[in-house]
Amino acid sequence: MNLSTEIEFKVDFNDCDPMRIVWHGNYINYFERARCALLDKIGYNYIAMEESGYSFPVTDVRVRYMKSLRFGDICRAKATLVEYENMIKIDFELYNTKTGELTTKGTVSQMCIDLKTGETQFVCPKIWLDKVEHFLAQGGF
Length: 141
Prior knowledge:
By secondary structure, this protein is of the alpha+beta class.
């Protein structure tokens, strides 16, 4: 399976601590930017999820910090879908584009909730599966 996307953005001053190093919690925001880009490419973003009667709250976040990003760096964020049938699981890699170094990696898992009943769905809805499988049939991104 090769469902991934990459985005680039400049590290803002307000993302940093007084030493101009990205505050650790903001790396999760960087994951979210890449995740939203990936979901847009698949054609089933958070708005589409809600309109189809489902939400996918985050159930697990894992982060490994290897190297700091700093104010003014250009970050390349890669999001790769690694599980889609029973949950959404996305792996992330953040790179400093100037040095090419991998700075951070992580994984985020999301479970499906039926908005009408509030019940957890242990298999993702057909609309999501169809969107992902459509891209897989076309060779991914």
